[in-house]
Write a structure and sequence with these properties.
The structure is a homodimer. By secondary structure, the first copy, chain A, is α/β, with parallel strands linked by helices. Chain A contains 13 helices and 15 strands. Chain A has a five-stranded mixed β-sheet with strand order 6-5-4-7-10, sandwiched between helices. Chain A has a five-stranded mixed β-sheet with strand order 13-12-11-14-15, sandwiched between helices. A three-stranded antiparallel β-sheet of chain A has the order 1-3-2. In chain A, helix 2 crosses helix 3, helix 6 crosses helix 13 and helix 9 packs across helix 10. The interface between A and B is large, with 78 and 78 residues. Chains A, B: It comes from Bifidobacterium felsineum. Chains A, B: It holds the Pfam family HTH_24.
Chain lengths: 404, 404
């Protein structure tokens, strides 16, 4: 086997590949003439004419009015109208399930959060998800696909998660059996942080031109998705980049996964919640709150200037920073984007993350890596669930339309 | 940008890609007829005839006698004689430099170790390397390339290592400026453990069909090379998969890289050497030995049954095991191959590594991942240095021969 991706060789896959490249060109560059596409992709005008004719016939792209071509000649524009096709994104966290409808550029048309999930209401939640998705599909005929983001480690061939710290009940759900063929449109499942990385890759103007980026999810779980040299790192079973279960202290706190000192045990919202319950004073009534509400109460108190709350946020941020140092040494991305609930702790949190990283990393790497908080309008994992499906739409159009 | 590797598009790159695919087919499958190659690669007979004619003319491949074709028809065989071309591999560790000459299948034709390097003899060592390589090239005209394996983190565009724990002097060497154009043959430089991963990918019959493998180098440094889905993970600057600088204890031992609790501080030969010097009794005279000799003295004592030595080897093995758990959660390879000096500690060492990993990892991952000691005849990083060049030879034949 070569070290480079095997080239598409059969005629069918060559056609699909060229079709995909044309769609991607229109997606990323907007309205373009056939001549511009031919030049950019090094394809013959004849091939462009043939493929775009089929894409127009199938209703995927359309002709616009004249646009300015080279040497001031006018030519007809082609457009992939990214608002015409809609995608459902579903994010599963432990206790949080969110469902959004997005256009192909990740703009949210609707977004809802289902009632808080408990270990004994997982089955009910699954029923509600079926109902809501069926209903959304009936209401909006522009929906062409569903993407789902699930907590890792997600065993992609088996269709289930290998560990869900603090809510083992999700492990019994086989996502493939439960959802993959349940609806009239193609459905794709991805580990949540990997979906978040795709969301930034496709939808975030600040980084989407970068082939090396990481989305660092710090919420009910701690996860990571890495795009390295333009491709997601998956690992053999899909269980790579599980930063939440990398130990930062081999003599530290035990974790449900069997490991000791997992990063997730120090900075996820369940870990924060535990610390607040142990503390007993800082957030009164913490024991009766959800993980998210307890963490948010702490962040609010810190933002109001409470010194003990600030100290706790800074100590959490140091662990998030240790995770960034591990990401530097493990994956050396150009951008780390931190998202999910813990990133709501704001500027003081990011400041402490950065100073921790500066202190503990190799200067050459620190100086060439950006670390920022996610600024996508919807949560990166839920828009990322949509991004998973958008990626498939752009790469394998024949799965969605009769274009051959 | 697409998530899939951009397809070769210009005619020249298509030809080079097909040439490379034919060479790789012959490399991996041995003598084959034109018809067999055409079928395997889905290329037209005309393309095969044209490309192989040029490869024969340039002396890269040759025709053999008749071989048995399909339907018992005889046809002419084509062969890439892997013993006809030689490659020099150079391994730089901190104090160890090895130079080997290999054939294209990684069989060592010669192997030498230079005198132990000290911080103040680095410049002399560089001079000696120039002399030896020049001499080897003069003596053996079959040598077509040189590969070099250097300690990571190696900043591949800059040509230098960012940290070399325990021998900072190597940092001042710019490997690209020093060596890249110094000889009459192409020269390639790679991080040492990544070179080791390539050695196993190309030369190790036990794993070379796997697209997901990791070489875990535990010697003067601790390094990792990961082939994920058929491609090396490099990171933005080439500083990814630096397992030696991933912390296993954020409150632990400080490291030269700025981080605290780096794995390298617990199981590299310099770390073992420090422990033996502190101990003072277990290996008498350890202070006057090289790192390697001190570590080997400990392993010998443990193999002879000394209980204190056994306990120290087991404690080192546990840290190597913690590293494997990090590799599971970070990269989820199918195979982890442990190599370099510390792997000489043998079966008792491997046993403790495995039991540590079983204890601390997710069962689904433990049960689907093999962890073995390297069994390549030469050290994986020095044969890996050659593998780096072999990979280039197979992927970019036009760099080596006039075949266009």
């Amino acid at each position: 086997m070569a070290l480079e991706a095997k080239q598409a060789t059969s005629q069918a896959s060559v056609s699909e590949s060229n079709r995909s490249r044309i769609l991607q060109h229109l997606y990323h560059h907007g309205i373009s003439s056939r001549a511009q596409i031919a030049k950019a992709l090094d394809l013959t005008p004849a091939a462009i004419t043939k493929i775009t004719a089929r894409l127009i016939e199938a209703g995927v792209i359309e002709e616009t009015g004249d646009i300015e071509g080279s040497k001031n000649r006018r030519s007809i524009g082609l457009e992939l109208d990214t608002t015409r096709f809609h995608i459902i994104g579903v994010k599963f966290a432990r206790s949080l399930v969110q469902i959004g409808v997005f256009d192909l550029c990740g703009n949210a048309l609707s977004l809802e959060t289902l009632p808080t999930v408990y270990d004994n209401t997982i089955d009910d939640t699954v029923v509600v998800i079926h109902q809501r998705l069926t209903q959304l599909l009936a209401e909006d005929k522009s929906i062409v696909a569903i993407g789902m983001a699930v907590p890792g480690p997600y065993l992609r061939n088996e269709g289930r998660t290998a560990v869900v710290s603090s809510m083992q009940g999700w492990r019994k759900i086989n996502f493939i059996n439960e959802f993959a063929s349940a609806f009239g449109v193609p459905l794709f499942i991805e580990q949540d942080a990997r979906a978040g990385a795709l969301a930034h890759y496709l939808f975030d103007p600040a980084v989407h031109t970068s082939d090396n980026l990481a989305y660092y999810l710090v919420g009910e779980g701690v996860g990571l998705g890495v795009i390295e040299n333009g491709r997601l790192i998956n690992g053999y079973l899909g269980a790579a980049t599980e930063i939440g279960h990398i130990s930062v202290d081999v003599n530290g706190r035990p974790c449900d996964c069997g490991n000791i000192g997992c990063l997730e045990r120090y900075c996820s919202t369940p870990a924060i919640h535990d610390m607040l319950i142990d503390d007993g004073v800082l957030v009164p009534g913490a024991a009766d709150m959800t993980h998210t509400d307890a963490a948010r109460a702490l962040f609010r108190k810190a933002q109001e200037g409470d010194e003990q709350a600030i100290a706790m946020v800074r100590s959490i941020a140091r662990y998030v920073g240790y995770g960034c140092v591990t990401i530097f040494n493990g994956f050396n991305p150009k951008h780390i984007i931190i998202g999910d609930i813990v990133s709501e702790a704001g500027p003081m949190f990011l400041e402490e993350v950065l100073s921790t990283v500066e202190e503990r990393s190799i200067p050459e790497i620190y100086n060439t890596t950006s670390i920022t908080l996610s600024t996508l309008s919807a949560d990166a994992a839920v828009s990322g669930a949509a991004a998973v499906a958008v990626t498939q739409f752009l790469e394998h159009p024949s799965v969605f339309f009769d274009v051959s």
